[in-house]
Design goal:
The chain is 41% helix and 17% strand. The chain is an alpha/beta fold. Strand 1 and strand 2 form a beta hairpin. Bound molecules: 2-acetamido-2-deoxy-beta-D-glucopyranose (NAG). This is Receptor ligand binding region domain-containing protein.
Length: 259
């Protein structure tokens, strides 16, 4: 199952590499290494290489990190080769870059990889990094393929240059939008009309980096707003765990509790 997925990813990548031309702006950065294959003076192919940047955090505390992903990519390549899906003449090279799960480093990492002539970006996984790299890849004309990008902005339409994250492909199975839909469905099923969102801004930061829970709540609010549901929010960031019972009494109390 898992390997099926990696193979899909490789195929996607190959598909893109063939398609990449044009891009979202007139002026192209000069780069003489776009082509997959190099030729000798007689026009004979000498070698073909697909280069992929892997932009991830180099810290195994995160769910998705270079340490965990690089070996998996190697396995995926071996599997795709053994299944005959990757042409034997095509070399696949990965350029790992540590983005520190930080938007600025991710962007610089993307630019550095671009100057190493990459055709495609894998990652980043942290949401703010996907945002900063996703906004520039459409101008670099190289697709960004990520299993991250959970906030609802990334689930919006991405089919033309005018779309913010055009050239970003989400491979993940779940986004914050889907989690919001699960809650909203439960609310409807039970005919519940009031919702209070208590969250810790930086909770779960090993999943999508800084503000993971805040971004989850932002996505939640985006969809709850459209329903006939009264909602309130409270960020427990500055509250000590031992004070949670009091916070629950104050914020939920008999405003949000039922009979
Ligand atoms: C990741 O960290 C390891 C160990 O600290 C180091 O050897 C490796 O060069 C780092 N990789 C990158 C791409 O920064």
């Amino acid at each position: 199952m898992a390997s099926g997925r990696h193979v899909t990813l490789l195929l996607l990548m190959l598909g893109y590499a063939g398609w990449a031309s044009g891009g979202c702006r007139e002026a192209q950065l000069s780069r003489d290494c776009e082509a997959l294959c190099s030729f000798d003076q007689h026009g004979q192919v000498t070698s073909c290489e697909l280069r992929a940047a892997v932009l991830l955090v180099n810290n195994s505390k995160y769910e998705i990190s270079l340490m965990k992903v690089m070996p998996v990519l190697d396995l995926a390549v071996a599997k795709a080769r053994s299944m005959g899906l990757l042409p034997y003449w095509l070399k696949l090279t990965f350029f790992p870059q540590d983005d520190g799960c930080d938007a600025t480093y991710a962007q610089i990492g993307a630019i550095d990889s671009y100057s190493s002539c990459v055709h495609v970006f894998f990652g980043p996984a942290c949401d703010y990094c996907v945002a900063s790299v996703g906004r520039i890849t459409k101008f670099l004309n190289a697709p960004l393929i990520t299993t991250g990008g959970f906030t609802y902005d990334f689930t919006e339409k991405k089919v033309t240059c005018a779309d913010e994250y055009f050239m970003t492909v989400r491979m993940g199975a779940l986004s914050f939008r889907d989690i919001a839909f699960v809650f909203i469905d439960q609310m409807k099923r039970n005919r519940w009309k009031k919702m209070h969102l208590l969250y810790d801004t930086n909770g779960q930061n090993v999943v999508a980096g800084r503000h993971t829970c805040q971004l989850m709540m932002k996505s939640m609010v985006q969809f709850v707003k459209k329903e006939a549901i009264d909602y309130g929010t409270f960020d427990v960031d500055s509250v000590h765990v031992k004070d949670y019972p009091e916070v629950l009494r104050d914020h939920i109390g008999n405003v949000y509790s039922g009979q």
